[in-house]
């Protein structure tokens, strides 16, 4: 077996032949970034290589000078002694798998990824490889995510049942908020959707990239808008539920869109009346299916439920190892 092109280092996954890190958790001289979530995309690197969308998103979040230099990867480029390309990961807009090739060997670092259709980003693209690096956020047999279309239909049934109550969905600013909006639009909900100010810039960016989010309005709660919001659908970041912002609404239906909503204790702890099990990560069937489909000689596990995947690897006679990487949250931001 040819030696892998990457290995675990103090700051994350490192490619020595290209002299770069993938999603390092502290500033480095050169980083390849898989997507714009804050636990993967950090400011302060000497140089950042990523998709154009991820670079744009980092600029929105961190400002113009978030790195010393940037380069958008389109197609394969030469970095040191290796070829690097990016393939869609299906996680959020601009999310990508990092494909590293040299001398007939190919290693793929998937970042965070999903196999379920997401109208707000490009679908995951399986890449045959020698080494596949996978997340394991929901890698337990108990995690089997339902169809997000059915979850949105449950939400809209509540909107119809309680038309006098505002419905507020907690959703992360990058990816989840836009996906929920698109799911609502595809389900036929064409009324205005009111969004918290923390979502505005990233929603505007998605619209500029051709993603039709429809009629979005700021949830400012001024006197002219107060009546509208009493019967509205609103989307806000999870942090808003612990702030004065949510207290302005009388008897709201609190919802939250996350794979963790499958665990009732998580929903109760957040005070969620209507949990929506909508995840942008692979669940147990999809992570195992992906490994079987790609069929690498070996796979590594970056973070999450490592023990269950290691046991599955042993039962299916596959080579695997956990990396025990630190610095990544299981649900970003």
UniProtKB/TrEMBL annotation:
One of the record's GO molecular function terms: exonuclease activity
EC number per UniProt: 3.1.-.-
Keywords annotated in UniProt: Exonuclease, Hydrolase, Ligase, Nuclease
The organism's place on the tree of life at top rank: Bacteria
The keyword Nucleotidyltransferase belongs to this UniProt entry's keyword annotation: no
PANTHER family, per database record: BLL1145 PROTEIN (PTHR11203:SF49), CLEAVAGE AND POLYADENYLATION SPECIFICITY FACTOR FAMILY MEMBER (PTHR11203)
Listed name of the protein: Ligase-associated DNA damage response exonuclease
Species assigned in the record: Thioclava kandeliae
